């Protein structure tokens, strides 16, 4: 049943096998709660460089005990090469910044980014892929060619849409 928000008195009465009863009334403080959310998540390579920008503004409900918020939260950011299966833990934050600007990401590699926001009751997970740096044509030894991106795998590695005979 929906009681809304505010105070609610609840009474519990217990009767034992001999017929004796005892009651206790407690006041419950009912508060609004919304599951945590990462708003407008994105992870992009900045200006075709080794810098990436991860945008991850979070919304977390306060749960008050008196005037103290007891609903703490964490934001875990992980990454992996797109071709890999295992994630690497990169950052754990308790007061998360909305934007991470990071350098040193290999322009010849594609990465997956995963961010997990967790409060006391729920969690939300978002992922994004970051492509290699964009380039018209990338020759990789005698292994393959990248078109629209740096070559990573296969004989022909295409970043973007491909049209063959108008299709």
Structure description:
- This protein is mainly beta.
- The chain has no helices and 16 strands.
- The protein has strands spanning 6-15, 21-30, 37-38, 42-45, 52-55, 58-59, 64-65, 68-69, 74-81, 88-93, 99-102, 111-118, 123-130, 137-140, 144-147, 156-158.
- The protein has a four-stranded antiparallel sheet, with no helix packed on it.
- The termini are far apart.
- The model has no long low-confidence stretch (mean pLDDT 92).
Summarize the entry for a quick read:
This protein has no helices and 16 strands.
Helix percentage range: under 10%
For the termini, the CA-CA separation is 56 Å
Unreliable segments (pLDDT under 50, ≥5 consecutive)? none
The biggest sheet, with number of strands, parallel, antiparallel or mixed sense and barrel status, is: 4 strands, antiparallel
Number of beta-strand segments: 16
């Amino acid at each position: 049943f929906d009681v809304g928000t505010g105070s609610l008195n609840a009474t519990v009465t217990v009767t034992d096998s001999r017929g004796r009863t005892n009651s206790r009334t407690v006041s419950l403080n009912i508060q609004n709660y919304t599951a945590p959310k990462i708003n407008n998540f994105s992870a992009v390579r900045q200006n075709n460089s080794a810098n990436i920008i991860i945008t991850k503004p979070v919304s977390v409900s306060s749960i008050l005990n008196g005037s103290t918020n007891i609903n703490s939260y964490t934001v875990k950011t992980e990454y992996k090469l797109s071709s890999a299966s295992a994630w690497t833990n990169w950052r754990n934050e308790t007061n998360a910044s909305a934007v991470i600007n990071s350098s040193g990401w290999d322009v010849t590699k594609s990465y997956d980014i995963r961010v997990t926001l967790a409060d006391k009751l729920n969690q939300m997970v978002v992922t994004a892929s970051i492509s290699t740096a964009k380039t018209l044509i990338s020759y990789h030894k005698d292994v393959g060619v990248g078109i629209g991106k740096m070559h990573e795998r296969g004989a022909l590695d295409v970043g973007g849409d491909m049209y063959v005979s108008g299709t």
